[in-house]
Amino acid sequence: MLSFAFKNMAIKKMQVILVVVSIVISAGVAVLAYNTANQVRDGITDTAGWYSAIIGPAGSKTQLAMNTMYFTDEPLGTIPYAAVTELQRDSRVKRVIPYAMADSYNGYRVVGTVSDYLEKKEIADGRLFDDSALYEVVLGASVAKVCDVTVGDEIFTSHSASEEHHEPLKVVGVLKETHSVFDRVVFTQLKTIWAVHEHEEEEHHEEEEHEHEHMENSVCAAVVTTKNPAFAMTLVNDYNGRVLTDGDGDSCTLQAIEPMETVRSILEETNSTKYIVYVLCAIILIMNVMVISIITLLNMVHSAKEIALMRLIGISMKKINLLYILQNGLIGLVSVVLAFGVSKLCLVFMDSYASSMGVVLNVAKVYPLELAILALVFAIAVLPTVVCTFVLARRDGIHE
After folding, report:
1. Per-residue model confidence as pLDDT tens digits over 13-72
2. How far is CA 163 from CA 76, 156, 188, 208, 300, in A?
3. Mean pLDDT, the chain, integer
4. Backbone angles phi, psi at 219, to 5 degrees
5. Helix 13-48 and helix 61-70: axis angle, to 10°?
6. 301-320: per-residue pLDDT in tens?
7. Where are the domains of the chain?
8. How far apart are CA 400 and CA 397, in angstroms?
9. What is the DSSP string of 278-319?
10. End-to-end CA distance of the chain
């Protein structure tokens, strides 16, 4: 019976191809939309949950959050390191992580901080950079893989495409792959950022007025963890809008944000888009049901002579029904497997776009509802055949 089903599908290959394409498009789009939406949401909220507050220059809350937590966008500017020192003395604060972003390596961001920032990350090779040593870097897994860099190698960062720094940085460690934005970043000690820029300023001082942003004794932001979650709001209220003056007499207005609150506002803005995608997926699924039902009906009508011939040679209607159900079941199974594979392939191509939002899409990530969607689509592919064969049997009065 199985071989007959394959032969029957080969004879009607155009109808089979049409059904397969229809299922692959509908199921693939539905699964891809659900997986992407949830990975983006999970990636954003999980990262935001690590922090109680972020202190940075006045400006866009969203830009400060995206730059500090997801290494995207550009920093709003700098604030005096005195802000970090003041926060460290605050009785409500458990930990303060200084954060600076000024350079890049082959397109990957370079972040200056302290080793505590990476304490929960596993090292695949080497070690973390030493807080007391200069010119040491730790690479994210993707950086090391794409750039073919290993522990012990030296790299040169750049301020822009045409301004490569002359001071080499030694790779002392490579992070284990996390399927997060940390895979795409180069980490170093904060003072290394200051030292590299100070060195460049000294080299250019005699030739021309330097164009580098003054980084020494300043940071782009301070990431704060409070001793009690309830302290976060009072800390934000106290530091938001505060004016600090550095040693040169320059003043700076601080901005303080609660990461989760900012992230919620970002997600609320994207919710409408997500629901539109879900509605479109539902429409595609409904159209899929109609297409499969029509093709199945036409196939059963055209198969009337085959069914009559099989009945004539003594094949029961129960076996005939089983034959067509088996045939469409095979088509449905192949189709949903292809749809699943296509959705994962699309995730690979979408990863570069998602990374601009600070989210790394994990191709291996599968949500239970994805499997439920594929099971539903499979049922949709087989159900019209069951209905049509049952109706045909009832119409002809054939039950045996």
Report:
1. 777 887 788 888 878 888 888 888 777 777 777 666 678 899 999 999 989 988 888 888
2. 21, 10, 19, 14, 70
3. 80
4. -135, 165
5. 100
6. 666 666 667 666 766 667 76
7. 2-44+265-396, 53-257
8. 9
9. HHHHHHHHHHHHHHHHHHHHHHHHHTHHHHHHHHHTT--HHH
10. 17
pLDDT at 202 over 80: no
Amino acid at 292: I
CB atoms within 10 A of CB 195: 18
For 135-170, letters b (16+ CB in 10 Å) and e give: bbbbbbbbbbeebebebeeebebebeeeeebebebb
Q: From its phi and psi, is residue 241 left (phi > 0), alpha (psi between -120 and 50) or beta?
A: left
What is the pTM for the complete model shown? 0.70
Strand 93-105 relative to strand 221-226, pairing: antiparallel
Alpha carbon separation from 50 to 33, 177, 178, 344, 363 (Å, rounded): 27, 19, 15, 29, 24
Least confident stretch, 150-164, 181-195, 202-216, 241-255? 202-216
103-107, 183-187, 317-321, 351-355: range with highest mean pLDDT: 183-187
77 and 100 in contact (C-beta within 8 Å)? no
CB atoms within 10 A of CB 255: 22
Place of tokens 């019976």: 1
How many H helices and E strands in the chain? 11, 15
Residue 146 sits at φ, ψ, to 5 deg, of: -65, -40
Question: Which residues lie below 8 Å from residue 150, measured CB to CB, with a gap of 6+?
Answer: 125, 144, 171, 174
